[in-house]
Amino acid sequence: MTMRKVSLTGIKPTGDPHIGNYVGSIKPALDLAKKFDARYFIADYHALNQIKDPKLLKDYIYEIAAAWLACGLNPDEVLFYRQSDVPETFDLATILMASTPKGLLNRAHAYKAMIQTNQAEGKDQDIGVNMGLYTYPVLMSADILLFDTNFVPVGKDQFQHIEMAADIAQALNYAYKDDVLVIPEPYSTPSTQTVIGLDGRKMSKSYNNTIPMFLPEKKLRKRIMKIVTNSQVIEEPKDPETCSVFTLYKLFASEEQIEALKQRYLAGGMGWGDAKQELFLVLNEHLSPYREKYDVLIQDRPYIDKLLKEGSEKARTIAGETIRRVRKAIGIG
Ligand code: ADP
Ligand code: TRP
């Protein structure tokens, strides 16, 4: 096992990377990469539950890869790979199934939400639930435990999955009376929060309410103008703390900018269009350098292929060691 702490995270290629992914996962992960052994990957098998169009899936895989690289992932320092290129993951997932209580998976948020919706609509509770969704937390645990991960930088919505990975690892360690697997924990910073989307709900590809990271300037502005606000007129003073535009602004503006906009809210005389324009300006300034890099990278698939191939070879070396260790412990080695 490595002595340095390990940080690991993955993103599913299920849509355009958005500023929720950036704030909740990409940014904290890249900060952690400065002090830990970092392993960041594209969770393409996890995406299969949602994406059944092969061309689209391929496009999204390149988009997520280009997003990581554009935001500053250095493949010489970070192990960067595709989940599907590391088959040891599926070995471990099968082993973990035997230490995973069914009741644990019954409690997973995504699965629970789906059966509750079915029940509320008077349908059979299992309609639309595939085994990929049901066993999602086991595959995710395999991703994490395969690399002796200590910290997993993810948004709050994923914390339950990391806690499940810790539970499953503990169950296996207990069964074999040995510290076979490292117990992971979610990593959060005060800024790792749930970023809200255009409609005030969690920003998510599934809700179609995102602000994608790499939209061209004009489209970015148009998207920001779609943020839902209340019907207060220009003259009225406005409450910054309950406003989605201000909440998003705070994530990207400086202390002085935040204070100045707050005063304009409280004074009245500022319309929602003006507040959104301020948000566009800070966001555009923040994202422009990433967008420039992304636009170049997304055109160069052979380069991305080469990096991912090199990364997966290194990843398989580490993964192979873990699998040998686990197999030995369980009597299959
Ligand atoms: P989505 O919900 O859009 O499908 P993913 O499930 O692919 O996003 O999430 C990838 C990473 O980005 C995860 O670590 C997740 O916690 C984080 N993330 C996604 N949406 C948000 C959000 N609105 N706020 C904070 N983090 C988020
Ligand atoms: N489930 C995560 C998401 O929806 C993606 C993911 C798959 C992941 N495997 C992981 C995140 C391992 C962290 C570690 O965002």
Structural class: mainly alpha
- For the largest sheet, list the strands in their spatial order: 1-2-3
Helix content: 40-55%
Q: What small molecules are bound in this structure?
A: adenosine-5'-diphosphate, tryptophan
Question: How is this structure best described in words?
Answer:
With 333 residues, the protein is mainly alpha-helical. It contains 14 helices and five strands. Helix 1 (19-32) links the parallel strand 1 (6-11) and strand 2 (37-42). The protein is globular, with a radius of gyration of 22 Å. The model has no long low-confidence stretch (mean pLDDT 95). Bound molecules: adenosine-5'-diphosphate and tryptophan (TRP). Tryptophan (TRP) is lined by residues 8-12, 43, 46, 140, 143-144, 152, 154, 158, 161.
Features:
mainly alpha; three-stranded parallel sheet; 14 helices; binds tryptophan; binds adenosine-5'-diphosphate; about 325 residues; single chain; about 55% helix; 5 strands
Could you write a compact summary of the structure shown?
Helix content is 54%, strand content 7%. With 333 residues, it is mainly α. The mean pLDDT is 95.
Topology of this structure?
Elements: E1 6-11, H1 19-32, E2 37-42, H2 44-47, H3 54-70, E3 78-82, H4 88-97, H5 102-106, H6 109-120, H7 131-134, H8 136-145, E4 151-153, H9 159-175, E5 185-187, H10 217-225, H11 244-252, H12 255-267, H13 272-297, H14 301-330
Helix pairs in contact: 3-13, 4-8, 4-14, 8-9, 10-13, 11-13
Tryptophan (TRP) binds near residues 8, 9 and 154.
